[in-house]
Amino acid sequence: MKHLLSIADLTRSDLDELLDLAASFLSVTQRETPKVPALRGRTVVSLFFEDSTRTRLSFETAAKRLSADVMVFSVATSSVKKGEGLRDTVATIAAMGIDAVVVRHAAAGAPRRITEWIDASIVNAGDGRHQHPTQALLDAFTITQHRGRDLSGMRVAIVGDVRNSRVARSDVQALSMLGAEVTLVAPPTLLPETLEGWPCSSAVDLDPLLPDLDAVMLLRIQHERDASTRFPSLREYTARYGLTEARARRLRPDALIMHPGPMNRGVEIAAAVADGPQSVIGEQVTNGVAARMAVLWKLLGAGGDVV
Amino acid sequence: MSGSGADAAMVLRTTVFSADDLRRAHTRIAHEIVERNRGAADVVLVGLHSRGPAIAARLAAAIAGFEGTEVPVGTLDVTFHRDDVGLRPLHPAGPTVVPVDVTGRVVVLVDDVLFTGRTIRAAMDATTELGRPRSIQLAVLVDRGGRELPIRADFVGRNLPTRLAEDVRVRLVETDEVPEDTIELWGPPETAGEEVEA
Lengths: 307, 198
Prior knowledge:
The complex is a heterodimer of chains A (307) and B (198). Helices cover 36% and strands 15% of the residues of chain A. Chain A is built from ten helices and nine strands. Chain A is of the alpha/beta class and 307 residues long. The model of chain A has no long low-confidence stretch (mean pLDDT 93). Chain A has a five-stranded parallel beta sheet with strand order 7-6-5-8-9, with helices on one face. A four-stranded parallel beta sheet of chain A has the order 2-1-3-4, with helices on both faces. Chain A folds into two domains: 7-132 and 286-300, Aspartate/ornithine carbamoyltransferase (Rossmann fold), CATH 3.40.50; 133-280, Rossmann fold. In chain A, helix 1 (12-29) packs across helix 10. Chain B is α/β, with parallel strands linked by helices. In chain B, strands 3-2-4-5-6 form a five-stranded parallel beta sheet, sandwiched between helices. In chain B, helix 3 links the parallel strand 4 and strand 5. The model of chain B is unreliable at 1-5 (pLDDT under 50). The interface between A and B is medium-sized, with 25 and 20 residues.
C-alpha cells in the first residue's frame, strides 16, 4: 500500500490490518514514553490548504510518535500566497527529499493528482466533499474498541450536513465494510442528490431511530460550504436534528455519541450531551493519533518495499 | 525467529529437543534464573512475540512450583523498534503488556531462538522505554550462533551451531497447534556440505 486516498481503495483485510495496528499504537501512546523509533529517518510533510486544528495536529503527533521528522507547510505564510500553483508547490517539497505528504485541499481529487506528480506516499487528510479516510478509520476504530470488530447488525446514524461531508462518505464505506447498517439523517436539502452507490439508507426524521441506535454521529453544519442557506434557521435545525438532552435520553444507555469536531455546541449537539457519559468525542481524538500512526506505519514502514 | 523456513526442499536434520527434553530444559533454566538472582523476588519474565510469552509462562509456572514465588510475566512486541524497518514486511505479532513497573527490577527477556541478536537489541530498547530495569537478562531455548551484534544469552537451553541456510523449527503446544512440543533442525539436502546463500 503506497497511498491512502479513499476508504473505497481499501479491502476488508487492509481495514482489519489498519485497525489492528491502531490498537497496537494506542497502547504505545499510553506508555510513559509514548514513542517508538519505527519511522526514524523518514520525513512526513503536512500540507494543509484548508484550515484544520485537530487533523493537522493529530497527524503531526502521530508522525512524531513514530520518530519521523515532520515538516509543516503552512499555506498562509508560503509562496502559495505569491501565486504558486499546486504542482510547483508539491514538486518543490518533493525535491527536498520526503517520504510522505499529508494533504488537505478544498478540491476533491487533489491528493490523487499529487500522486501522479511525485514519488512520495500521499495521505488524504480531507479533499473537498470527497473523502476523509483517516477520520473514518478513527471512527471505525472507536466503535470497534467498544463493540468488537464485527459490527454486523449494529445501527449507526450519521446526522446533519451529509451533503457537504467527506466524513460521512468515508464513514459510510468503512462502517458498512465492517457490517454496520448506516443511516444518513438530514433535512432533504442536506442529503446528497442521490444515494446511488452508497451502502446505506437515509431518513428525514431522527426521532424514530433513536431507541435502536448503537452509535449516533453528529456532523457540523458547514457554514463555509453554504450549509446554513439550506434550512430556515439554526434554531429550527436544532429543534429537529440537534442531539439535545431530551433526545439523548431516548438513546440506549450503551449507545455511543460521536462527533468528528469541531463542534458547534448548542447547534448539532447540546453541550451537556457532548460532555456526558455516553460521549466518546474525546476518545475519538485520542484514537485519531493511533489511527494515523497506523496509516503512516502501513505506508512507510510495514511493507518492506520502500527502501 | 526461525530463519528461511519457506523452502520446501528442506529436510529434517536432527531433533534438537523432544517434549521431555524441553520440559527438563525449562526446569533447569527456571532454576538458573532463580539461582543467578538469589531468589525471584525482583524478577519479571518478559516473553518476546510470538513464542516467548508461552515460554515465559512455563518458566514462571516452574518457579512458582519450586520457589513459591509468583513471578510477573509480560509480553513484548519489538516490531516498531527493529532496525530493518522498510527492508522486509513487518507486522506486530501481539500486544506489549508488562504488568509491573520494570524500574529497579531484573527483566529476563525470553525468546525461543537466539540468532543474529537484532531482535534482542530491539527488545532492550523497547524495555528501557518502559522504565529503567536494574538489569536485563536473556533466556533462550536455542542459541544457534550467527550473531551480528555483541549480545549473548544468560540462560540457554542448548547451544546449536548452525549454518545460515538451516532453519531451527520450534513448535510449541500453546502457539503452534501441535500435540506436543518439538524443536528440530532443518536444512537443505546434504550435497557437498557447502554454505548455501540464504
